Amino acid sequence: MASTRDIRRRIKSVKNTAQITKAMQMVAASKMRRAQQTALAGRPYATLMNQMLGEVTANSGDFSHDLMEKRETGKTVLVVISTDKGLCGGLNTNLLREASKADADTTIFVAVGRKASQFVARTKRDLSAEFTYKDIPEFTDARAVSKYLQELYLEGEVKQIDVLFTNFVSTLVQHAERRTFLPVGEITGIEAGIEGEKSEAKLEESALEFQFEPGAADVLGSLLPHYLNYQVYQFLLESKASEHSARMVAMKSATDNANGMIKDLTLEYNKLRQASITNELLEITSASLAVG
Predict the structure, then answer these.
(1) So which residues are the catalytic ones?
(2) Where in the sequence is the domain holding 228, given as residue range(s)?
(3) Is 280 within the bounds of a domain?
(4) Which of 22, 159, 237, 254 would be 74's cystine partner, CB 3.0–4.6 Å?
(5) Number of domains the chain contains
(6) CATH number, domain with residue 234
(7) In a domain, 103, yes or no
(8) What is the model's pTM?
């Protein structure tokens, strides 16, 4: 049975832990608000980019691009966007569980984030490249990743490039999702990136005609890389918003658990102390009766 001294030490230790988790909760909450606002603010632009690209491509005649070329042979590239740090609940666990479902023999991995790199190294899978991104993602971070993926696809040795990231739904809900990045969808099936819906119905209803100057190849040839760059940027924003949300919830849960443990330990300490006092009183009373 633990002594009162041991219980006091445990109470002190748990209080110190609760102070740390409380501080981390406040920091995560502060970062979470900004990350959520940035991710939500970027969604309308991403959706509009998808709609515009779909309509423009649908009215561009026989336009074709190497980034839209479908292939039947080659390996699949899986880009895994994870966090750099832990202590964010089951966020990385759920993400890497989905990544582990990919066939190691036919899949090449690109890691974005330290946890993804550690997963690929630990499971001894084929790692093609490793990237990092700032706590507040910048467009230059996304452009570096997107440029590498486009060059990798244009080499013609891979048939498809997918992105696995954590999509932000709410503060309490984040889902690991896998999206096709390359080849870019056909004109009747451009993926609506973040919303995950198809724009086929809108394309069929559209009766707009576009005139390109200097030409469709030049305009769309410049538009496609920017479209892909922004898609990666939005993926990073969604992942970062999910990370801070999950960490805030995890640290709040840890703080609540620590406070509950402190209450239980304090109750146990008081019981032991009361029992000790009662024993001392009994000893004094017995001694007094024996003497007198």
Answers:
(1) 88
(2) 42-247
(3) no
(4) 159
(5) 1
(6) 3.40.1380.10
(7) yes
(8) 0.84
